[in-house]
Specification:
The chain is mostly beta strands and 277 residues long. It has one domain. 13% of the residues lie in helices and 51% in strands. The strands form two sheets. Strands 9-10-11-12-13-1-2-3-6-7-8-14 form a twelve-stranded mixed beta sheet. Strands 4-16-15-5 form a four-stranded mixed beta sheet, with helices on one face. A hairpin with a 3-residue loop joins strand 2 and strand 3. The longest helix is centred in the N-terminal third of the chain and has 15 residues. The chain is globular. The N and C termini lie far apart (45 Å).
């Protein structure tokens, strides 16, 4: 009975939010190639990130990861719990081991795309970070305020837009960015904003993290920027980072008739955190 309660609780915790609160309407969508280097060697991991930009707010997220998370959740929500005969729960499993189980296995690898979503309010400098660890959702508040950019005379061209260079010290790293006043929007990838034009490229000076715009579109139909309403652990930035550092490497659900095996994978520690302080 206890294991059945665990599964039912997990199902409801990973349900997509059924109620939303509208914050803004996006009229521009930008796509960024995000590259991050592993702690050792010259291996980079790349993801395609989306930035939806509204009049005051933006949402930065991995649209492919959002779709995979939704598909993973639908497996649980559509399962008939009356069919359950047994439930087993395992932690720190090697993802390859789940391939040896009989039945249907549904995986949600934490490092197959970026699960964190960032909501940015450019007017007041407040940033909200959303992420989950297995079945628990966290909402981290980060009142960044003003970013103290230094604009330089250097010029370059990206995506056929004329850009100017700016530099910034932020959370223990030095960054250089290229922004264009041809798109006079005070926004950019990840947490970056505060320049008199859209940031098309930004990287830290050590070459560990690179954000590069690879395309943008003007939306014919505005797209709602929404912070889902669900049960969160509300926390400040440092507590949020601590919680995410304990994040598992993902989960798998194996269904073999009425026998259920829930596994959490070992965490991947081969990447360093972008914020050093």
């Amino acid at each position: 009975m206890k294991q059945l309660i665990i599964l039912i609780s997990f199902i409801f915790l990973v349900l997509p939010a059924i109620a939303q609160e509208d914050n803004d309407q996006a009229t521009i969508r930008c796509y960024y190639r995000f590259s991050q280097k592993k702690k050792t060697g010259d291996v980079f991991l790349q993801d395609t990130m989306t930035l939806d930009i509204g009049s005051q707010m933006s949402r930065y997220y991995d649209v492919s990861r959002v779709r995979r998370d939704s598909a993973f959740s639908s497996v649980l929500t559509n399962f008939d719990v009356t069919r359950i005969n047994s439930v087993s729960v395992f932690k720190d499993v090697n993802p390859d081991d789940s391939n040896r189980l009989l039945g249907d296995t549904y995986k949600n690898n934490a490092y197959d795309g970026i699960s964190e979503q960032i909501y940015k309010n450019r007017k007041n400098g407040n940033i909200i970070m959303l992420d989950n660890n297995f079945s628990e959702w966290y909402k981290g508040a980060d009142p960044v305020g003003v970013m103290n950019w230094t604009i330089l005379p250097d010029e370059a061209e990206f995506l056929d837009y004329s850009c100017q260079k700016a530099i910034l010290q932020f959370r223990g790293r030095n960054y250089e960015a290229w922004f264009t006043t041809q798109i006079p929007i005070n926004d950019g990838p990840w947490k970056f904003f505060g320049l008199p034009g859209l940031i098309l490229k930004v990287n830290d000076t050590e070459g560990q993290f690179i954000f590069e715009c690879i395309g943008l579109e003007y939306l014919d139909v505005p797209y709602a920027i929404e912070i889902p309403k669900r049960a969160y652990f509300d926390c400040n930035r440092k507590d949020y980072i601590k919680a995410m550092n304990k994040k598992s490497g993902g989960q798998s659900i194996n269904i073999n008739g009425g026998d259920i095996v829930i596994s959490s994978f070992m965490a991947d520690t081969s990447f360093q955190h972008i914020e050093l302080d």
